[in-house]
């Protein structure tokens, strides 16, 4: 199988785990990886401490993750895209645009009260134009 694997990310550790799973899947399938960030409003998060701080804007998350994943596995073509809108809608639109074979999402907000509030994974699973892989990103 070749084609495109699409993964949704934000600046969270959970999304980073999902992206790493997506990279493994893309490599094993001989596919390229397309990293997508969907955001409803632009905001920033600061990581690090002291003079080693970096500010990451939501729209930049896809680029940062894509660059680090591409550097770790040069055999896999990694691209990125940021889209203003609901994250699930952004993933689905990109999957349609690229005729993706697979969408990978993390399982954040699929337990406890988060299930009542809704999750990106749930929304994508119900509306995706292709297969969906929900990566376990919870800590044991």
From TrEMBL:
Stored Gene3D superfamilies: 3.40.50.12370
Sequence ranges assigned to domain UspA in this UniProt record: 3-134
PANTHER family: STRESS RESPONSE PROTEIN NHAX (PTHR46268), UNIVERSAL STRESS PROTEIN UP12 (PTHR46268:SF6)
Family statement: Belongs to the universal stress protein A family.
Name assigned to this protein: UspA domain protein
Organism: Pseudarthrobacter chlorophenolicus (strain ATCC 700700 / DSM 12829 / CIP 107037 / JCM 12360 / KCTC 9906 / NCIMB 13794 / A6) (Arthrobacter chlorophenolicus)
